Amino acid sequence: MRLLATDYDNTLKTNIKNFKINLDAINKFMEQGNKFVIITGRSFEQIQPEIIKYNIKYDYLVCNNGLIIFDKNNKIVKCKLLPINDINFIYTTLSKFPNLKKIEAYTYTTTTTELNEILEFHGEFINKSSATDYRNKLMYARKHLYCYQDNNHIYISLNTNKANALMFIQKLEKMQKESIYTIGDDLNDLDMLLYFNGYKMLKSNNKLLFKGIPTIKDVHSLVKKISK
After folding, report:
1. What is the pTM of this model?
2. Which pLDDT value is given to residue 116?
3. What's the rounded Cα separation, in Å, for the pair 5 and 3?
4. Which of 140, 153, 181, 225 has the most CB atoms at less than 10 Å from its CB?
5. Across the strands, what pairs with 146?
6. Residue 62 host element (H or E)
7. Which residues have C-beta within 8 Å of that of residue 52, sequence separation ≥ 6?
8. Boundaries of domain holding 94
9. Are residues 111 and 172 in the same domain?
10. Do 63 and 167 lie in a common domain?
11. Are the beta carbons of 190 and 211 closer than 8 angstroms?
């Protein structure tokens, strides 16, 4: 048995024609007794309409870059909520920081105001430098937190990543590391690409270059390669 974990945007789903070929290949892969995982930075709320629309089948769904894991019936397998003291600190410092445009708190379904249900904070600043300034100050004050920056946006959560989520699934399935394959295109995929048998997409973030990660054209090509 083998396990394939794919990023969603610009990896599993590129153009619609290729996307459908990917899904057909994955369905056959699963019919052969293998496991399939979607592992995305999207929240459950953001990815669910896509899953319903395209009738995507999977064994596990990992959202918010590894913060929450669902089984094939969309029951929560593991969830890493922010502690209340961190929530209070983030909200207080973020809401008062200069050039903040927007602040949102996410649970696994949607935005939330319930302090005991927060997975992740999202802050949008007027410019990139303000986001960088806040990120640097947060990382100095709360080293156990993870803060991902995308230009003028920051995303704050407990320190986890896609690789950690897959390690948890690996233990659940009692699989060898060598039987797990991953594919992605961006910096938030790097940890899982390096730790497991990782492949980067042909069109990937330049920061994935020179890491010793092999390149592959698309997901269905990888399915074909590992099904031999």
Report:
1. 0.85
2. 63
3. 7
4. 181
5. 157
6. strand 60-63
7. none
8. 84-158
9. no
10. yes
11. yes
Greatest C-alpha distance within the chain: 56
Q: Do 60 and 70 meet the contact criterion of CB atoms below 8 Å apart?
A: yes
Q: What are the beta bridge partners of residue 4? A: 36, 181
| 214, HSE (Cβ side, Cα atoms, 13 Å) | 12
Give the pLDDT score at 148. Answer: 85
The answer to whether the Cα torsion of 104, 106, 110, 115 is positive or negative is negative
Helix 16-31 × helix 219-226 angle, to 10°: 20
Whole-angstrom distance, CA of residue 222 vs CA of residue 197: 11
Report d(CA 61, CA 40) in Å as an integer: 8
Q: What pLDDT shows up at residue 114?
A: 55
Q: Do residues 167 and 203 share a domain? A: yes
Full DSSP string of 43-58: -HHHHHHHHHHHT---
pLDDT tens for 202-222 read 999 999 999 999 999 999 999
Take residue 137 and report the two structure tokens written for it. 């100050």
